[in-house]
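B., you asked whether I could sanity-check this one before it goes into the benchmark set. Here's the sequence:
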Amino acid sequence: MKPISIFILSLIFSLSFGQTQNLITPEKIENSVQKNHLNTVLFLDKVITLENLKENNLLKNMIFQEDKDLDIRVFMDNSLVNSLHELDPTLTADELLKKGNYQFSFYVDEKLIYVENLNTGAGTIENKKVKTNFRIPLISSNNEDSWGKYLWSRFYLVHGGIDALTAGNHTLEIEIRPYLKSTSVKTGRLIAKGEINLTVPKKDISEKQIALQPIKSNSGWEVSTEKFNTEKIRNLNQKIAENRFRDITSIVVVKNNKLLIEEYFNNSGRDSLQDTRSVGKSFASALAGIAIKEGHLKNENQTLGEFYHLKEFQHYTSKKDSVTLKSLLTMSSAFEGNDEDEDSPGNEENMYPTDNWVKFTLDVPMTDNKIGGKWSYFTAGVVVVGDILDQKVPNGLENYAKEKLFNPLEIKNYKWQYTPQHKISLAGGLKMNALDFAKFGQLYKNNGEWKGKKVIDKAWIKKSFTNYFPENKDFEGYGYLFGEKYIRLEAKVLRRINAVEMVVTKSLCSLKFL
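And here's what the prediction gave me:
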């Protein structure tokens, strides 16, 4: 019996050691304020270093102002990675940090408003391994950049925080837990919490800011005389004036080919050029369709191997030769590029500093995914679409776009973003005024016609609006560089004009299909 007992004890010791070998010794807790406030979220109205932090700096009450500092200092009794280790003792520290991070829960007046599992890329790996405290600016008067700034924006502007924090007195509470995601999300014990009493002042909004703006002459559109619920638009204007919707510059609503609403905000006007950001990718789809219809490209099933000597680029595999234009248009090319993943080799932020965006893209490795099978937001792939078009259309893509798209729509004032080779970039950043954006939307609404002239083939528009990933029920859908959620906006807005409140948060560009 003795040898068996020794064996069992040895086995228990081995298992116990295996479960604790991934623990990392955290930093020593030596600061007196931290010792007094372990597992606490503390609130401050100014930036104070840990060394200079005093008890009288900690706030229980404050007047909440959107342009003033709101800092939090989080004190824990262990590092994040060790808290994650409690959820899965079998993973190494690096594996844990690839699958988990902090979970933040925001409560207003004891009501849960928003929960976010922080992106695994937020925060440095070394800090999450050893640090037992961290400071995050939620609001910074100096516009200090951090993941906390965006966390707060998502809580406050997108997920109802601003509606909960109405004028008056409120309690804001933040709870922090570790989370780990594999097939499902596991949440650990509470590692810090804190609350503050906020007094929210009433905003002074003038009647001029709320009133509907009249449509001025010479818009280039016939003005609609149709009636609509003006109180809904006054409501929307008040929210914009209260800065509930940030950086809104313009709203244009076109119904039945007539201009119904035209309003401008934040020092913007009819002639102001608005940045389309990634909505500019939809222009890439339009130009590809025009080029195919005119025979400059055979069809969207042509492959990269027909346009490039891909063996000259890094990470070559014959699979790259088979990547189709269609897969680039639907963002399912199987390149290892994902703009939503900071660690992805093909992330657009890795592309912009390089001196050749096309080479960057074609150097990106391939995944094991089937070409056309899995959607992954890949801006760099759209740059390649633009380069192919520039190769194949007469006189280059910039001239082609002017002749075939902008001239027919009578759009004269616009600015492209350019690649380092000074070729127009179809990845985004095209600037136009709001009324010209509306023309592009109306073009699609009219199945490719503008003032009786065919600009884009109707069949191409149907392809562009097709959802090529219907089997993914959790995905909003994607066509040829058109997201399904934007395609569906038209009916919502025309059914109820107050739906503009929802649309406008997505940016002016979201209205382009009216």
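One thing to flag: The longest strand covers residues 168-181. Otherwise nothing jumped out at me.
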